[in-house]
Amino acid sequence: MPETPETPGQGHSVGHSGSPHDHSAHDHALHTHAGDESARHDHSAENPHSHDHAGHDHSHAPKVTGGNERRIFIVLVLTAGYALIQAVGGWLSGSLALVADSGHMLSDAAALALALVAYRVARRAADEAASYGYHRVRVLAALANGAALLLLVAWITWEAVTRLRTPVEVMAGPMLVVAVIGLLVNLIGAFVLMRGEGSDQNLKGALLHVIGDLLGSVGAIGASVGIMLTGWMPLDPILSVLVAVLVLRSAWGLVKASLHVLLQGTPAGLAPEVICADLEGLAQVAAAGHVHVWTLTDERYVATVHVSAADGAEPLDLPDLVRARLAQRFGIEHATVEVNRAGELRRGHGPESA
């Protein structure tokens, strides 16, 4: 069976006497953990193998940047402040587009606050309760943001249908002024977030919320100008629905991406067959298989892989060699490599006894 990746943040070294080795006397290699008591690691005779983690850095320190956190805080202040102004403007003018966008912005403010909390929690170091750390709190926050957007889309659509059946008088002038201010606020917010650091689903979720607000402001401007020119009140709910459709597309993409990470789906471009073929291109590797790749967060890849040594190759050299290859070719920063005896490994299936 593939070995479960060891506790992150611990320098890990394992020594075995060779790849094909005898467990009849129940020799046990010792795992030496930095800062911990030595723990015994024992392998059954049914699946003899050797593996090594020597020289491999298992640090899973959070890749959370203070810059991203500050950017979200700035946008939170802008969003919450303008949402209140927009709510008052929408109520006074009777515009559903403004009221809908105000509700959208208030939900965004809550989502941004949730994102900030996620950053704080993600900075916590790994412990016994969470050996990989708390990075996925950010992914959960992104999922919550996407779900909130989907609920908002449903509410806007319901209100729009109601207003199409029973048109409501809209004061286009005040509506236009508030919408233009909202557009400026959202442009500033989008600019701040687009300058964020790294690939971060939490930051992307916040940016999608702001872009949705920006589209809402554009829709409100279009509706107000159209009403001023034509006097046709259904323009307001119609444009609200169009904005909701655009937000729906972005929200669903965010939910889908977050679920893929949480379900430990294989990252795009990292198919196990491709990785096996690449590893088997190494002169020291006779076969590779039983590859599993997933993402700890949207930007951190983790893998387990089995390999067997080619004739003349030193089995104990394979783990470091394979890890270096995975990092260089596929960006996989944390890999557990298990070395099997020659002839017992089948591509994609691991040991025949597995």
Automatic annotation (TrEMBL):
Keywords: Ion transport, Membrane, Transmembrane, Transmembrane helix, Transport, Zinc, Zinc transport. It is found in: Membrane. GO terms for cellular component: plasma membrane. Residues 72-263 form the Cation efflux protein transmembrane domain. Pfam families: Cation_efflux. The keyword Glycosyltransferase does not apply. Its main location: membrane. The chain crosses the membrane at residues 72-92, 98-119, 139-158, 170-194, 206-232, 238-255. It comes from the Bacteria. The keyword Cell cycle does not apply. This is Cation transporter. It comes from Falsigemmobacter faecalis.
